[in-house]
Design a protein that fits this description.
By secondary structure, the protein is an alpha/beta fold. It has helices at 5-14, 24-33, 52-65, 94-113, 121-134, 173-176, 180-187, 204-216, 262-276, 284-292, 315-327, 330-333, 348-358, 377-387, 398-409, 421-433; strands spanning 42-47, 70-73, 85-87, 90-91, 140-144, 162-165, 197-200, 221-224, 229-234, 239-243, 252-255, 301-304, 307-309, 336-340, 363-366, 391-394, 414-418. 41% of the residues lie in helices and 16% in strands.
């Protein structure tokens, strides 16, 4: 008998050990037994390799600025599993988490008694999220896919109000395919008949796949290219941009994240919000303020003086990180060190080579994440030594790695922790625990 929040979290964390991802029919049956919770709300379904979490966060902020209560289901979490289920700006509290956990567990136990398999980790939390949203007065629900799109548990929602596909690059190639076209095909699996699709048109190969799928399903299609906006300023605190059209090119938006790629993510969210609220009076000044004051964790986030974490963990995200570093003039502005870790199913050697060939870090510190898929520091160290003449230091313990990084860059130098969202979460935990002082 599970009687506490802590026991509920422990139960959920054990799920991957005794189940697997299921077919869509299984998830639909699971949700049906839960009462198809929150299916009557306006649902925005978002997929993509990179940027989908940021687009979701921007869109949520804009909807909230117009007084719309909004639920948000996201993954992964950095510190607490509660982060995955949010109502407006707040993750659900432990009491609510345990309350919906008990409801979902009761249904799951009934399923198992009838010979129906237990939902996977992600499926279980998705059921909890929808159940939590159903017990609030949220008008909009933003669902971020976990992996891919076509076969993702979130794709069991058949009638969203809008679908969005963000930047696509090579990631999870063992599952989604090893070409941009194959991966785009999986992401395009969220497109629904007659439901509008907004997408990042930066990659021509991906765009062609998405357009064809939209045409097949008679889904109104809006491609958002880099010509849709103009970047006005990039600095360590924010990026400023405007729409490229003549009508409102003088309206400047700011997002408090210095990554250049965030202009595209914010532009997608702005255009999606304009569509969702097209029959209502909108207040652009509220939107500007909402974006300006947004806090989105793990994306070029300055977590302490001279210490930044970024969740870049695949080729596309590493390219975006390098682009941002160049825009910021990192190589000209002073000393900086990169702390890197990765999981084994990512293209970590490609990422390492790209970093070394395109940046001039003073040193690379490699460490290990707390996951069975971690890459040993010796393997990461050897990979870096193949592509750089800079100092490479191996420290399996994260606290030791950060102390080594500080020693290498000095008091005024910058430290960037990249390569894995797990690493970003570990840094935040370490800072919150007080055992490391930047």
């Amino acid at each position: 008998m599970i009687t506490t929040y802590e026991e509920a979290v422990a139960y959920i964390e054990e799920i991957p050990k005794f189940t697997k991802k299921h077919r869509q029919e299984h998830t639909k049956e699971f949700l049906r037994r839960l009462g198809n919770p929150a299916f009557d709300r306006k649902i925005i379904h978002v997929a993509g390799t990179n940027g989908k979490g940021s687009v979701c966060a921007y869109l949520k902020a804009i909807l909230m600025a117009e007084g719309k209560r909004t639920g948000f289901f996201t993954s992964p979490h950095l510190v607490s599993v509660n982060e995955r289920i949010r109502v407006d700006n707040e993750q659900i509290d432990n009491e609510t988490f345990f309350h919906v956990f008990r409801q979902v567990l009761e249904v799951v136990e009934e399923m198992e008694n009838e010979g129906v398999e237990h939902p996977s980790y992600f499926e279980f939390l998705f059921g909890m999220g929808m159940k939590a949203f159903s017990e609030t007065d949220v008008e909009y629900i933003i669902l971020e896919t976990g992996l891919g799109g076509r076969l993702d548990a979130t794709n069991s929602v058949e009638h969203p109000a809008l679908t969005i596909i963000t930047s696509i690059s090579l990631d999870h190639t063992d599952i989604l395919g090893d070409t941009i076209e194959q991966i785009a095909g999986e992401k395009a699996g969220i497109i629904k008949r007659n439901v509008p699709i907004f997408y990042d048109g930066s990659n021509p190969k991906a765009s062609e796949v998405i357009r064809q799928k939209a045409q097949e399903l008679e889904a109104p299609c809006r491609e958002i290219s880099k010509n849709a906006f103009e970047i006005r300023e990039v600095n360590w605190k924010y990026i400023a941009f405007s729409h490229a059209n003549a009508y409102d090119k003088d309206v400047i938006f700011q997002v408090p994240i210095c990554g250049c790629y965030q202009a595209m993510n914010a532009e997608i969210a702005l255009q999606a919000a304009e569509y969702l609220l097209e029959n209502e009076t909108i207040h652009i000044e509220r939107w500007r303020e909402a974006l300006k004051s947004l806090h989105w964790e793990g994306r070029m986030e300055r977590v302490a003086p001279h210490l930044t974490i970024d969740g870049a963990h695949n080729p596309g995200a590493i390219e975006a990180f390098v682009e941002s570093m160049k825009a910021l003039g990192a190589d000209e502005s002073g000393r900086y060190v990169i702390v890197f870790s990765a999981v084994s199913d990512k293209k970590y050697e490609w990422m390492i080579e790209y970093l070394c060939r395109n940046l001039n870090a003073n040193a690379y510190i490699v460490t290990e994440i707390e996951d069975v898929r971690r890459v040993p520091v010796q393997d990461l160290g050897r990979a870096f030594e193949k592509y750089t003449d800079a100092k490479v230091i191996c420290k399996a313990n994260l606290e030791d790695a950060l102390q080594a990084a500080r020693a290498e860059c000095g008091e005024d130098g910058e430290i960037y922790c990249i390569g894995s969202l797990y690493l970003a979460g570990m840094v935040k935990k370490l800072l919150e625990g007080g055992s490391y002082h930047a």
